[in-house]
Amino acid sequence: MLNNSENKSFFIIDYDKKYLKQIVELFINTVHNINKKDYTKKQLNAWANPKYDLKTWEKRFEKSKPYLCMLEDEVVGFCEYYDGYIDCFYIHFKYQGYGVGKLLLTHILKLAKDNKIDKIKVDASITAKPFFEKFGFKQVKENLVKRGNQELINFSMEMDLKF
């Protein structure tokens, strides 16, 4: 649990379908507000299309079961994590710098430790790379990812865990 400036606590919960629309909108709004300094509008639209299909997302989340960071009944961050790999990892653009990412990452590290995972991997955007580096992730390689007719750069990163 983590307190914000209004003395309300952030907390982590397992995926709950009732937050589906909030999660998808958080993803799209965060990409378009935070990543715009590193990617073009066309790249952002290819990555996080504002015209989304909720059923597609519902199927994805039913399988991936993301972890949600909550502030009361609002989703302020989420991540997908499985088998030592962090997939989606997004913090609401209005809650950047409040420790939400640290709280989610700490949750993932505890899960990894509990499951005796010795290496965590992530493919981080240009924007997210410094966050992961701050917590000890090292770049393994640079990737060129195709989304529709756009190419985006991201970075494969790893962190060795010592237990």
Strand order of the largest sheet: 1-2-3-4-5-6-8-7
Note the quaternary state here.
single chain
Radius of gyration: 15 Å
In helices, the fraction of residues equals 25-40%
| Proportion of residues in β-strands | 25-35%
Q: Give the helix tally.
A: 5
- Class from helix and strand fractions: alpha+beta
Number of domains: 1
Low-pLDDT ranges: none
Q: Report how far apart the termini are.
A: 23 Å
H/E order of the elements?
EEHHHEEEHEHEE
Please report the total strand number as a whole number: 8
Largest beta-sheet characterization: 8 strands, mixed
User: What's the overall average pLDDT, rounded?
Assistant: 93
CATH hierarchy class name: Alpha Beta
CATH architecture classification name: 3-Layer(aba) Sandwich
CATH topology, by name, is Aminopeptidase
Superfamily at the CATH H level? Answer: Gcn5-related N-acetyltransferase (GNAT)
Sum up the overall morphology in one term: globular
